[in-house]
């Protein structure tokens, strides 16, 4: 579904991504693991076109998307959920969802506010509340729900568990498993191995802008030295 | 009592008109972050187009109201044209460049209007059905004014419906907050920006068209309204529709009652209120503090380095020419050269706060003008010799620089720039309205150099020496510890404070210093011209300074010098060659913004570095 090869990106002269390669298959949940500053968020932004890639290839559903504008990439079926959430604080929950609304591809069951409130019940109870007056966990749910309103084929989830209370992280994991059950493909970035393990099929490890390891979640859990080298703090 | 009520009503009518223009301006700013100087031009075009439609269409309701609506819609289309042809290409450029581009549009529209409608004031017909008046408390009040009072709230209501009840409005409000995120959700921003520009220009056009039965249509409408609209938008809070409405009401009534109570200081009053609001509420009445810039792009400014040897040589050659050649020139050429030297210093002084300081000023002419008035007033009232006048002027200006700067450097971005504009307008209003002391519009005449410097050549050398010394001092300051501190606080106020730099004091001193330097330039200018006028500190003069700095390039030290030479030279030549110099100048500015976003010196440096392969 998504095939990234040789992806590079720069901020000014600084090399942030150096030949990143990863792939996500249909219906698969892949986690991009790495420490703070390893290049996880930049990888996500580069895929979405928010950071211009300086080299490499990004193929989504067989099309080259490198160099396209974010809105075009979004319309092809890539949904991006930013790490900072970026909820529209002056818009209500329903209005936030409206901004994300895009027609569903033919044959797919479109997301509606009602379906999303079933997935995230706490949002349903605050439909007219401005985004700025919600807790961090509620905002995280809203930002995922907002992106889902665009009926994406592949969801890019940037550190969804960051800064959330443990009980909210559990609910988030449930929601992601529910989305996977719907057949949605997901690329998520995480530092929280526990959370990643609960939802992912495969893992790709990034450090200093380079891919260091790639394999199934089970293989990663068996490879203590890999976890020690790249993930322990 | 009756009079007060009528006065309040006429204040409401002005508030309505003001709101139409300001609402468009604030909506455009909210979404595109562009401070649209050309908004006043849309207003003027609306009025002219309405005049054409209403006077050619058959008389009656359809002809009049149809003409007004058609004028608004056509103005909207012109707005779209400006957005698509110019602004769309520079959304990623720094804020001030966009401002410069819109000012280019102002110049172009002025001359196109002159070409199309001529220089004379045009009078439109009165509105059919609203020619009469209504008795209110025994006094007659024009029906058309009552109609205008109703227009404001109706438009506000429609806009609120549009923004809160339609998908388009929801997208616009979302984009006002985080337009990159809106794009990542699949919304084509281009289309959104263009439609917002259409709406904004339409509103300005409608505001202008509705003035037709009230006042004559003329070529000064654009700058007159844009200042007021800026005040309203800034007082209300940039991007806030309700704020614009509230501020329009405040300013409209202030005008109405100001004339009644304090006729002498009506102009000052508006800007005093604006300054007061910004001091108390730095983001306007209903505005919100802008969030931290999103997106991790590299925003650090390029480092200012000493000039490369080649540039030094070029500078020496230019200077040698400036010293050696003038004895062979005539009086006219000497006057032009004197002016250029003065403007080089003026631009360099603004550059100190804009480049290394990282602050924008829309009102730098205030200090230039105060310097000129300082010298002229000393000559007129104290009969001071030139030397005293030239010495006194920068000191007086320094005091004002410290005073105004203390307020201005607390704010940032557009708000700070607007406060500098407010202070400049206060200074301008005082020069314009305090006729007993300043001579008002007639200015102060007979400010001539002393006998020893009365020849054009001697005065030129005096100016050159003073301006050169001051400009070199400014360059030296940038490379001194104070200059490092100034640049450090620009790049990160927080981090510079953490290493012990007093960011506020650094900015404040830089502001005052720039004022003093502009004051020296202004004092020399007064003696060069032999007279001073309020226009010395008008908005166009401030814009001149901005253009010179931006034209040359903000992030190079030679930028303001090159910019001043290019701009003063270009303008001087154009005025001599063509009646439509504004058109050519405006088009040149637009072309420069589109093709040399780093300014002339910046572009030259890039080309130089690229050739040497060390970019």
From TrEMBL, chain A:
Q: Which domain of life is it from?
A: Bacteria
Q: What is the protein's name according to its record?
A: ABC transporter ATP-binding protein
Q: Which Pfam families match?
A: ABC_tran (PF00005)
Keywords attached to this Swiss-Prot or TrEMBL record, sorted alphabetically, are: Amino-acid transport, ATP-binding, Nucleotide-binding, Transport
Recorded GO molecular functions are: ATP binding
Family from the record = Belongs to the ABC transporter superfamily.
Q: Which InterPro entries match?
A: AAA+_ATPase, ABC_transporter-like_ATP-bd, ABC_transporter-like_CS, BCAA_Transport_ATP-bd_LivF, P-loop_NTPase
Q: Which CDD domains match?
A: ABC_TM1139_LivF_branched
Organism expressing this protein natively: Paracraurococcus ruber
Domain named ABC transporter is located at 2-233
From TrEMBL, chain B:
Subcellular localization(s) per the UniProt record: Cell membrane
The record's principal subcellular location, in a coarse class, is membrane
Question: Membrane spanning segments where?
Answer: 12-35, 42-58, 64-87, 99-119, 146-163, 191-210, 230-252, 259-280, 332-353, 389-407, 414-435, 458-478, 508-527, 547-568, 580-600
Q: What are the UniProt keywords, alphabetically?
A: Amino-acid transport, Cell membrane, Membrane, Transmembrane, Transmembrane helix, Transport
Task: Give a yes or no for keyword Nucleotide-binding in this entry.
Answer: no
> InterPro entries in the record, alphabetically?
ABC_transp_permease (IPR001851), BCAA_transport_permease (IPR052157), LivM-like (IPR043428)
Write one Pfam family the protein is assigned to. BPD_transp_2
The way it spans or sits in the membrane comes to: Multi-pass membrane protein
Family per record? Belongs to the binding-protein-dependent transport system permease family. LivHM subfamily.
Q: What is this protein called?
A: ABC transporter permease
List the source organism.
Paracraurococcus ruber
